[in-house]
Amino acid sequence: MLVLSDAALDALLAQDVPYGDLTTDSLGIAAAPARIRFTARGAMVLAGTEEAARLIEKAGGTVTSVRPSGTAVEAGVPFLEGHGPAGALHRGWKVAQTLVEYASGIASRARRIVEAAPGVTVACTRKNFPGAKDLSVKAVLAGGAVMHRLGLSETILVFPEHRAFLSGSPETWIADLRRRAPEKKIVVEVDTVADAIAFAQAGADVLQLEKRPPEEARAVVEATRGLPHPPVVAAAGGVTEDNAAAYAAAGCPLLVTTAPFFGRPADVKVVLEPA
Q1: Where is the Quinolinate phosphoribosyl transferase C-terminal domain positioned along the sequence (predicted)?
Q2: Is the whole model's pTM more than 0.85, yes or no?
């Protein structure tokens, strides 16, 4: 399924080819029949392939095969092929390649975290590059993770920066939040074990442990397990494929991470040649 509209894809092409392809046009090869093939240089989880294919089509080419987002491929596997005039394929080539490389990088990192902690939900934050949310969310889902929160409008997450403005006990404002938004979970970010236990006793539904090590996460899980309504203990901040298993073993059923958004793009080889 495409998450970028034709208008958005047109804008990407316009940024890269604002006044024509000077090199291809000057060489006089724009009308020559050509073919194009995208191949994985290394193991990766594909994302954004549908948008890449549509970019080739928008540029004037014809796509003959494309593997869907979420597909895991090994090095050397072709995943998008097409043909058309050389000028059309040159116009769509780099934008399509770059888009699928960045999206597949996100999807591949998300998949590695998911695989490192089987049975645990991996949720990615909204801290994607501004303006790239639609494709970033698609890549996260392609990797097998979920979104933590898409924006401020959908969930209640009380940060220390919110609590600085509050007076009264946690029990009071948590109860007030329940009256104002009875269908929502109350999530509280904490950065100490003592605060986590206090907010759990006050009625928080989810404790988001900010940059606390797995042993502290385990201490919170054990200290709150006996409450009438034990909270979900979520590890957040610094969660990666290297420590995901440790947080899962500590008893955290939810891992909140930004790691998939930051890293190298996937490496994609493109062959564009005469047909």
Answers
A1: 106-258
A2: yes
